[in-house]
What does this fold into?
Amino acid sequence: MKIVSSKIENVLPKSHIQILNAAVELSQDINTDLYLVGGCVRDIMLGVSEGNFDIDLAGSDIDRDFADRLAGKLKGKVKSSSLFGTHKLSVPVGYQTNIEIDLALCRSETYKTPGSLPDVSPGDLFQDLLRRDFSVSAMCIVLRSPEDQDWQWGQLIDPHSGYKDLKNEELRILHKNSFVDDPTRMFRLLRYSGRLGFAIEEETKKLFESSMNWVSVISGERIRHELEKIFEERDIGVILSNCVMTGLLPAFLTQIDCKHLIKFKELEYSGDFKNNTAEFWFGIVGMNANKTEVEYLSKTLNLNSKQREVIRDLNSLNKQLQKHSAQLVSEDPKRSDIYKFLMKYNVIAIQVCAATTSDMSIKIILEMYLSSLMNSHTELSGDDLISLGVRKGPKVGELLNNLLYAKLDGQLPSIDSEMDYIKNYLRNN
Ligand code: ATP
It folds into this structure.
């Protein structure tokens, strides 16, 4: 028997322990078993104490009422509930900090066809652990024992030898159909391997390779979701390049070339590549796409409108830069010309271009726009122009633009000079 209560106390912040205590109290009231499951058990056993510790709880009698009562006790709220008996809570753990608690009924899952969503039915703890992706995520810690067992608070239940794999730093699936049942697990495999630096166990590797083509049966929506999760990781470049080198991403995105992503393996996560959004990374995926490929990517991954806009703008920005780069990087480009040229494009598309271009002169110009030009504004507002005597209407916007261009080119250093510019205009018109 392995009791890991001291690990829980060492790893979880006090606020989280209080949440567990509140959940245990409630489980006693309604007489249900209760377990800590999934990734937080893996992280507790690894002793990882940084990062966001969302909590996954499972039990045999967890329902919406349990979710509502737990949310009430913790002054949080139930954000959503699903037909599968899962509930998402958001709970405050400090000043302006919330964590998510996932509550789920222990369940078993069966897959009628590869890649389909599973048929779900209530099950016991062991069925619930068996439906999971990797042995290291298929352990649980007992918070309240079922009546027919004599388990203790803090006892590790590990039917698939996840702890051994954790010690050996290996990722292993639980049965040979795992990837075929749910091919998204192949993306999860590369994501966790990249995050934890774990190797992939030999049999799992073989099954990964032989199941790869099943990835094409998954919906674009689900693959996009997996990519978005990758884009939240620290070592995005390593994971993305592994997705390409193993053939997984090309097996899904059959009509575009993803080889350019391989070089991101060596990426330094500083400067241009730090703290970027999913849109930025979709831009990186589609950075070389032509117009047809942009449409293909948008459709195949079912990208949302912001993500689509980035890759579409990136494509036209690249084209326009090819055409006009000589003009833009001339000896003394006018700042207003740079502004006029770039203001039409989505800012993230410009960021992707600045981060990836090999042309240093273009990079300097794009960075100048991102760091200063795009945030420039006139001292005078539209209302100021009207009070000075400009008639309401499109002329106000036009004059504001002219003011801004003149200011960017260093001609209007102060509010007084802007006023003079407008007065002069009024005198002449
Ligand atoms: P993290 O949130 O740190 O990335 P996690 O392991 O908590 O890791 P989630 O995606 O929140 O990841 O999933 C919670 C748990 O649900 C997992 O630990 C795993 O046991 C199980 N799980 C999630 N997705 C799948 C899947 N596609 N197939 C099987 N089990 C899954």
About this structure: Residues 195 and 234 are 7 Å apart (CA to CA). The chain has 21 helices and twelve strands.
